[in-house]
Write a structure and sequence with these properties.
It contains eleven helices and twelve strands. With 373 residues, the chain is an alpha/beta fold. α1 runs parallel beside α11, α5 packs across α6 and α10 crosses α11. The C terminus is likely disordered. The protein binds nicotinamide-adenine-dinucleotide, 3-isopropylmalic acid and manganese (II) ion (MN).
């Protein structure tokens, strides 16, 4: 359904190694759901060979050992093909500790510059069908700055933001190629009226990269207007390419517009595939509902689907998306955040049933030699 920069199908019999990090709060609950769906795909297609290793890294690990992952955590992860991640965040820790101890290091050290966040309504009547391409390694998430004159009346905080020409060009180029493949338009979202350095560079590069793709309809919109248009005129957006902070905010807005944060999946990857891709729902650890068994697992399940797509099993990716749509069409399979009463496990079972149904009703699903994208 999407495109992960790699046009090669996996050679039959290839083995894929996946690191699983359930993390905190609802992370383990939704990752468990995603793993159940993944297990049912493996039962249907035994020739897909996956090895899964689970790592207990997160806020409890921090309480036990003083860090979110061991010192060699990143080099352990580097050897995998993909990382399947839940969420981190713990009400008893400062908000920046889990984020800078686990999630942002993975995105930045592996240079996973594409954060692909489809906002696809499962409701046929909705006009919301867009794909956010978020720059994932630069900008406002540089993590550099200073606290000046602490404890004095002059105390201030400085947070640096920097976009490089190459960093901007590569994510925009990816967005244009994605738009080309999906036969969609490409819209850039910035705030270059106020952000007179980073925003202006982004716009300049967008015009240049756009000229490399004259076949793709391109336009730019300021982020404030974009936020309104996502609500009032969602069909205005197909592929949206934007910076790190705006992409983060607009993806939660998009998720809210299609029903809730629990629905939205994401893929973080480098299109060259030399480092592991990272697959995680858009939502966080949701401490307000953690442990109750009511979290919506769909974002995590669809993130597992995108992981199949990234590994080259595009037909399985599409099939899981279709199964989710079919499952959610029945009111009794809807989780609490979508107005239903189904518990996490029941939603998951409904998706697996829909997957089994789709395989029983077609002959596909056991073909090893599928073309990739
Ligand atoms: P959140 O996404 O965790 O929750 C926001 C709201 O959405 C809450 O009301 C929550 O109950 C609801 N929600 C989220 N996921 C849901 C699901 N699967 N099913 C049903 N409802 C769901 O965002 P927040 O409250 O701003 O952050 C909580 C913690 O998570 C913070 O520590 C934050 O830093 C962290 N966080 C982590 C990630 C990540 O690891 N990828 C992402 C976002 C936030
Ligand atoms: C997300 C999250 C992260 C982000 C946080 C946890 C740093 O909110 O994946 O959207 O802002 O990228
Ligand atoms: Mn977010």
């Amino acid at each position: 359904m999407f495109w992960y920069g790699n046009d090669q199908s996996p050679t039959p019999g290839s083995k894929h190694r996946i690191a699983v990090i359930p993390g905190d709060g609802v992370g383990p609950e939704v990752v468990d759901a995603g793993l159940k769906v993944l297990a049912s795909v493996r039962r249907l297609d035994p020739q897909i060979k996956l090895t899964l290793d689970t790592y207990p890294w997160g806020s409890q690990y921090y309480r036990d050992y003083g860090e979110m992952m061991p010192p060699d955590g990143m080099s352990i992860l580097r050897s995998y093909d993909a990382i399947y991640f839940g969420a981190v965040g713990d009400p008893d820790l400062p908000l920046n500790i889990p984020v800078w101890g686990l999630i942002l290091p993975m995105r930045q050290a592996f240079d996973l510059f594409v954060n692909l966040r489809p906002i696809m309504s499962m409701d046929e009547t909705s006009r919301m069908r867009m794909v956010i391409v978020r720059e994932n390694t630069e900008g406002e998430y540089l993590g550099q700055g200073a606290r000046l004159y602490p404890g004095t009346a002059r105390e201030s905080a400085l947070q640096l933001s920097s976009y490089s020409r190459e960093g901007v060009a590569r994510v925009q180029r990816y967005a244009f190629k994605l738009a080309e493949r999906l036969n969609m338009s490409c819209t850039s979202v910035t705030k270059s009226n106020a952000l007179n350095y980073t925003g202006v560079l982004w716009d300049e590069v967008f015009r240049e990269v756009g000229q490399e793709h004259p076949d793709v309809e391109a336009s730019s919109i300021l982020v404030d207007a974009a936020a309104a248009a996502m609500v009032t005129l969602p069909e205005r957006f197909q592929v949206m390419v934007t910076g790190n902070l705006f992409g983060g905010i607009l993806s939660d807005l998009g998720a809210g517009l299609i029903g809730g944060l629990g629905l939205a999946p994401s893929a973080n990857f480098n299109p060259e595939h030399r480092v592991p891709g990272l697959f995680e729902p858009v939502h966080g650890s949701a401490p307000d509902i953690a442990g109750e068994g009511v979290a919506n697992p769909i974002g995590a399940i669809l993130s597992a689907a995108m992981m199949f797509g990234y590994l080259g099993y595009v037909e399985r990716e599409d099939r899981i998306f279709a199964a989710v749509k079919r499952a959610l069409a029945r009111p009794e399979s809807r989780p609490r955040d979508l107005g239903g009463t189904a518990r996490t496990e029941e939603v998951t079972e409904a998706v697996i049933d829909a997957l089994l149904w789709s395989v029983a009703n077609t002959n596909v699903g056991v073909d090893e030699s599928e073309p990739s994208h």
